[in-house]
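Entry 14. Structure prediction run on the chain below.
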Amino acid sequence: MLALLQALKAQTANVTAFKAGPDFLDPLWHQAVTGRASYNLDTHMVGEENSLKLMAAQAETADVAVIEGAMGLFDGRSGVGGSGSSAELAQRLNVPVFLVVDAQGMSGSIVPLVSGFVTYAEKMQVSIVGVIANQLGSEYHAQLLQEALHDHQLPPLIAWMEKNALNLPERHLGLVNPEAGIVPDFLPFFHVLIDDLRHLFAQRLKAVDQKPEARYLVDKTIAIAKDAACCFIYPANIDFLKQQGAKISYFSPIRGDAIPENTDAVWLPGGYPELFAQALSVSSTWKSLAEFIQSGKPVLAECGGAMLLGESLRDLSEKTWPMANVLAYHSIMQNKLASLGYREEASGIKGHEFHHSVRQSERELDPCFQVSRGDKGVRYKNLRASYVHWYFASAPEVIVSWLSE
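Output returned:
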């Protein structure tokens, strides 16, 4: 995906990217290449209508748009091409598909492979219009694949990636964050077989009725924790708060910033607190945050943000660090996945849960969410803390109530 974005950027400055599904890290890499925020699209958490609106909004200032799929084309919450799959998203948004194939050691076998994908996609009224091959050994290898696809009237090979291409570093939640200056140059390894990529990725958008949104957070100031420890933020959530009339301010727990003056509500997003536990253990933020919570003002804490509020955090080296000590639990990092999946609260608001830590407490805590699956969270005064990352526009009236009670 990053190689494709770099190739498109070489042809036009106005490239925008999207990510299928609830992923936080891939969009950060997209933004590092395009210079534009990358928005999440899906049919479950974001919803078809909001996905179309996001695409239309980005179309106003972009010439080319690319959506990176999630998992395989037909992998979703259930079935083949079912809810949450990239195929369903392509169908609902009426966008063409470029199939990425791992073709290492492959020649003629690409024909039945691509043919099967094309046939099943057509059953869903999804159009596969091109193939990008990964892990190729040479230009001759690419030529064999190109000819095989052409001879069997299949979508053309539009580009290929060498098998010795650079790799992105990973850690327990996926790719590392794209720190300044470390975005690799994939272009020497990525070979485009057509003269102009831009016309293939020109925007094909449904007309969307952009109704004016009601503004329920006018004159409210929402302070958001934002730094390397609190970096899992859907751009659409920031847009939503601004559209509701809220003023946004930011603070950094790593730096020890106090909660900004005149703040009406605080949002603590997720991220990687375990990687910055030493700095967070002595953060000056906790005093003002505890006072804010004790005052009864609204606070929403998600995943890593909720980990900050406990008594301690034990990292992967099994060292324990003190945290804000607002809530009576300990966050314990583990090497295995603790929970993963879409979540929906009884109120209708939707979100996603993905973490390797677990919460331990010596006493029963008051839950704050009614969910059939996943973390029910912890409620204290007007604080709601859980492992779920909520998508605000999925239930506007709910998030407004959480941040303005």
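The chain has two domains: 2-201, 221-404.
Filed with the rest of this week's runs.
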